[in-house]
């Protein structure tokens, strides 16, 4: 691959849940690597549009879309709109997710289903909306954002861990199905990352979360984004079915 141009030049990326946090950092990083980017949000179009405008400021094309990842028809409609306005999507990052923590024995069906619907069903629906086009063009990249809870577990997050563990299994199996079509499927596993969602974590809880890590600090969203961008480039063309830990040395 030539080194005199951005590694993702000419590619179109769709990042779910990219109006803030890790997703936003991934969307902006893709633009730095030369991709045109679709910024997705569930409800807040203004936030998504602000990220899209930042990306346009770098000289790349961008658009903001709303869709509920739990609703297959909404993702299919978003895919059609993106194809009409920007072109076919080459890269999909399944980043959108939610948590509804609590003890397993006390957890109602509503909390369980909400987490599974967003984290697992949303990943499946988004992938189905875009993967056929990648298969037809014989090139594609799918990166699923998972969690240490899906690998080593965490008390109070049985629903979240189950959803992310399922996405890990999906990643590895889908990679095998997609390999003959030139579509690579990997996952990135962030640890405790400094975002808006972690600002209200009590200091003692933060220390406990960081204690098992090697680096003893929170990660930054950009440290996750760079790994995702690499996996979507031709530099990672011999990597598929992998779970890449970006967690400060937490997971084995």
Task: Describe the fold and architecture.
It contains seven helices and seven strands; from the N terminus they run βαβαβαβαβαβααβ. The chain has a seven-stranded parallel β-sheet, with helices on both faces. Helix 1 (21-32) links the parallel strand 1 (12-15) and strand 2 (36-41). The mean pLDDT is 96. The protein is 42% helix and 15% strand. It has helices at residues 21-32, 45-56, 72-85, 109-137, 158-178, 203-210, 221-231; strands at residues 12-15, 36-41, 62-66, 91-94, 140-145, 183-190, 243-246. With 252 residues, it is α/β, with parallel strands linked by helices. It has a single domain (12-245), classed as 3-Layer(aba) Sandwich (Rossmann fold), CATH 3.40.50.
> What is the total number of structural domains?
1
Main beta sheet:
7 strands, parallel
Helices and strands, in order, run as: EHEHEHEHEHEHHE
User: What percent of residues are in strands?
Assistant: 5-15%
As laid out across the biggest beta sheet, the strand order is 3-2-1-4-5-6-7
Name of the CATH class: Alpha Beta
Radius of gyration from CA coordinates: 17 Å
CATH superfamily, by name, is NAD(P)-binding Rossmann-like Domain
User: Regions with pLDDT < 50 over 5+ consecutive residues?
Assistant: none
* Average pLDDT: 96
Structural class: alpha/beta
As for the CATH topology, it is: Rossmann fold
Number of strand segments: 7
Pfam family, one: adh_short_C2
Family: Belongs to the short-chain dehydrogenases/reductases (SDR) family.
InterPro entries: KR_dom, NAD(P)-bd_dom_sf, Sc_DH/Rdtase_CS, SDR, SDR_fam
Protein name: Beta-ketoacyl-ACP reductase
């Amino acid at each position: 691959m030539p080194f005199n141009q951005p590694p993702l030049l000419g590619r179109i990326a769709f990042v779910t849940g990219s109006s803030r946090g890790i997703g936003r950092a991934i969307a902006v990083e893709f633009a730095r690597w030369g991709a045109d980017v679709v910024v997705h949000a569930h409800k807040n179009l203004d936030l998504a549009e602000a990220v899209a405008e930042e990306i346009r400021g770098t000289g790349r094309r961008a658009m903001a879309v709303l869709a509920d990842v739990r609703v297959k028809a909404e993702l299919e409609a978003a895919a059609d709109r993106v194809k009409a306005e920007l072109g076919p999507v080459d890269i999909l990052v399944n980043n959108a997710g939610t948590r509804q923590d609590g003890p397993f024995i006390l957890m109602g069906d509503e909390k369980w289903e909400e987490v599974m619907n967003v984290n697992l069903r949303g990943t499946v629906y988004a992938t189905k909306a875009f993967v056929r086009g990648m298969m037809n063009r014989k090139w594609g990249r799918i990166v699923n954002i998972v969690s240490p809870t899906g690998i080593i577990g965490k008390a109070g997050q049985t629903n979240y861990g189950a959803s992310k563990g399922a996405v890990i299994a999906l990643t590895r199996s889908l990679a095998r199905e997609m390999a003959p079509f030139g579509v690579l499927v990997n996952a990135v596993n962030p640890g405790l990352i400094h975002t808006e969602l972690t600002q209200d974590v009590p200091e003692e809880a933060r220390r406990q979360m960081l204690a098992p890590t090697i680096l003893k600090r929170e990660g930054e969203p950009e440290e996750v984004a760079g790994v995702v961008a690499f996996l979507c480039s031709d530099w990672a063309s011999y990597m598929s079915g992998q779970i890449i830990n970006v967690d400060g040395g937490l997971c084995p």
